Amino acid sequence: MNETFTKSMARNIFFGGSLFFFLLLIGLTTHSVRGLPEQDNRQNLTEEVALGKKVWEDNNCIGCHTLLGEGAYFAPELGNVYERFGHSKEAIKGFIQSRPVNGIPGRRSMPQFNLTDQELDAIAAFLKYSSEIKANNWPPNIQG
Amino acid sequence: MKYTSQSVAKPYFIAAIGLFVGQILFGLIMGLQYVMGDFLFPEIPFNVARMVHTNLLIVWLLFGFMGSTYYLVPEESQTELYSPKLALLLFWVFLVAGALTIVGYLAVPYATLAKITGNDLLPTMGREFLEQPTITKIGIVIVALGFLFNVGMTILRGRKTVISMVLLLGLVGLAVFFLFSFYNPDNLVLDKMFWWWVVHLWVEGVWELILGAILAFTLIKITGVDREVIEKWLYMIIAMALITGLLGTGHHYYYIGTPEYWLWIGSVFSAMEPVPFFMMTLFAFNMVNKRRRQHPNRAATLWALGTGVMAFLGAGVWGFLHTLAPVNYYTHGSQITAAHGHMAFYGAYVMIVLTMISYAMPMLNGRDAANSNKSQVAEMWAFWLMTVSMVFITLFLTGAGILQVYLQRYSENPLPFMVVQDQISLFYWLREAAGVIFLIGLVVYITSFFIKGEEARLTKAENVISD
Ligand code: HEM
Ligand code: HEM
Ligand SMILES: [Fe+2]
Fold first, then answer.
1. Which CB contacts under 8 angstroms, 24+ apart, belong to B457-461?
2. Ligand 2 pocket test, candidate residues B323, B329, B351, most atoms within 8 A of CB
3. Which residue intervals define the domain Cytochrome c in the entry (chain A) (predicted)?
4. Which of B42, B51, B257 sits opposite A103 (nearest CB)?
5. pLDDT, tens only, A38-97
6. Which of B19, B20, B30 to probe ligand 1 with, by most ligand atoms within 8 A of CB?
7. What residue ranges do the domains of chain B occupy?
8. Which ligand has its closest atom nearest to the C-alpha of B321?
9. Do residues B257 and B189 lie in contact, with contact meaning Cβ atoms separated by under 8 Å?
């Protein structure tokens, strides 16, 4: 880099630029957070859904699955599983409940989590709520 | 080594390398589970192996950053470390806390771990990369505070250079943004938004400051180029990193329930994020070309140049590949993401830590500047084995990702996830093979530390300037 461009100019660009864009990020984030009620399906965020999120976290489901495209890539996307399972919470519960303890020979298998009935209801409610979040039309199709 | 207290870096580096080995072993376990689904089931389910793999990665990189800081800061500040005792104490606290956490992951079901560590009181667990029990997270914050205090006091007491100030700013940022890991609202969209304030603002924000500072330090030492020049580069690199990377956060706000305007903001700003990484490549090569002295540690020079190139490839090129919103619509959360995640983490942060270790370890072991020629040759073999196999891991995952996206998301008759996984299993086998080569590279790397021999030295003619 040439001589007319000095170190103190570079330093000013760093501090000025970073501060400006950090404030802009905070501003835009605040604006987004204010606008979230339009998209985030909070009208359906019941206590049961909140418990479902807790069950989701306490069993580290994200360690195999994606949810709205984030997580692990070992098992199917679950942001739209409610739709994939024919809009049936019962189907979701049935699937989770019926996982074999010792897996399936030669294949990937989901662990048996031994969830209580209340937890099963909650996780199904959470997945239904997730599927109703407006995520700019993602995923592209039912396969997730 | 100019200051005796720099020696506290050594245990940090040794622990980092040890945990690195663990990380790779669990990577290989998962790689096998991808193709042999019942491998180690139900003893080590995939999600457990994944937590161990990614958390070990983060923890060993943190050990690496801390070790690098303890080596770098006294030398830059021209004074002994404020408290070497505190540094050693925190080393053991961090190591024990980390080990207990990993044992916890492996020994009991995750739900049990959540229960016995009181996740009900302040739920922070069960989110990708932030799986640590809440008490571990609190421990991390305490260690970080003690560390920052120690480093801050040292810098205050001594010479304040651009490099040490940038490093400190990066480390403070690391600690501050980690605090968002304690924010876990019931609202999934809010949770996801601020989760990225840890993950994205780390790797595409403040960690780039740490990366830049360590790279600048090693380049000054290796090349003898004038500090003024190096510092100007450093400022421009980190300026571009934050100018593009802060709003670049938007590339994660496309499809998680956030407003539509992020499709534009995220695309425009993150498309420019490769710039600072490209500047790092130019920086490294320019400085080495302009060197005013020959350094006998050729392995360290190789690592420094490699960091520039691989960070640009992994973060810059593979990042750009899927960062535009219309592309990300199809690639979001696919093997393309995994391909990019691997090469970016390796090229930028693994390699910068290994650069620093390569530069500092000979001195920490009581040598003047470098290991024996034999040892360096082994280390350079390790460089190529690990780097080339990581390129192949990335290429195979990219192949898998392209097919996955096509079969599952793009073709006329989209196929179910598990059907597609079966069809692309060849790529997973190849990835696993490349992973084994990576492990061999790592073994060679460790072996290189035990190869003795007389220190490599330069002839008088080679040694133009010394300082
Ligand atoms: C050498 C052999 C390795 C193998 C076989 C391997 C395998 C894997 C697998 C199977 C996953 C999980 C992907 C999924 O969620 O489905 C993963 C995740 C990950 N690995 Fe590795 N890995 C290896 C080395 C590394 C190295 C050297 C690094 C760091 C430089 C690394 C960093 C990561 C990261 C950051 C993730 C999370 C990726 C994401 O969320 O997109 N791995 N690895
Ligand atoms: C050294 C710097 C970087 C590292 C270590 C890194 C690492 C990662 C990792 C681990 C993920 C997966 C996160 C998850 O599990 O959900 C990710 C996602 C992503 N990265 Fe990076 N990255 C870096 C730089 C970049 C850059 C410079 C760009 C853009 C030019 C970029 C674009 C993206 C995008 C678009 C995603 C989201 C992928 C998806 O939608 O699934 N990254 N990165
Ligand atoms: Fe990002």
1. B457/B296, B457/B368, B457/B370, B458/B294, B458/B296
2. B323
3. 47-131
4. B42
5. 999 999 999 999 999 999 999 999 999 999 999 999 999 999 999 999 999 999 999 999
6. B30
7. 1-160
8. 2
9. yes
